[in-house]
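Hi support team,

I submitted a single chain yesterday and got back a structure, but I'm not sure I'm reading the token output correctly. Could someone confirm the output below corresponds to the sequence I sent? I've pasted both exactly as they appear in my results page.

Thanks,
R.
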Amino acid sequence: MEDGFARLRAEMVEYQLKGRGIKDPRVLFAMGRVPRHRFLPARLQASAYDDSALPIGSGQTISQPYMVAAMTELLELKGNEKVLEVGTGSGYQAAILAELSNKVVSMERIETLSNEAGKLLKELGYGNIELVAGDGTIGYAPEAPYDGIIVTAACPDIPAPLFEQLNNGGRLVLPVGDRFLQTLTIVKKKEGRMITEYSFGCVFVPLIGKYGFPD
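Hi R., thanks for writing in. Yes, this is the structure output for that exact sequence:
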């Protein structure tokens, strides 16, 4: 079956990603390499390479492949960066980031999800990911500053601590809006100033925490 998954993964890259405008060859390579089906419950693995988000338990989801690729591409990673991810979930996005950067710190407020992701990422051989269980909306100061920060849940606004922990010249990519509809937003830090750009509409589960939505 692994051969079948490899074929589905190649088709995903060709039609869902290249076909919809993802161009960064490093992102395309990472998406074609990481076994997305491993990050899903067994009953959903056959749907792993469909163009859709899927449930992973605890009210959380694994984002659709295109969204993962699009957000990753917007970070413009070259390979030597330290990246913070807010919302570990299954660990899939962390694995993609680990393929493309020097170190990934990934935060998850639901400890059981963080623990499960940690076991799988270790099994898959990712040694450059540090998992932290806690409120991702306040970031993780011990490893700051970060060259890139990605938030994989809906934010009511740009969390101030995340911008503070962003390196000068760094990028923060996150969905900003209400609980039902958001706009994918790119925040750049230039000489301490915030420069904001907007991409496209999206729908994520809400980010819960001090600088997110109330539980």
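A quick pointer for reading it: Residues 2-202 form a domain with the Rossmann fold fold (CATH 3.40.50.150). Let us know if anything else looks off.

Best,
Support desk
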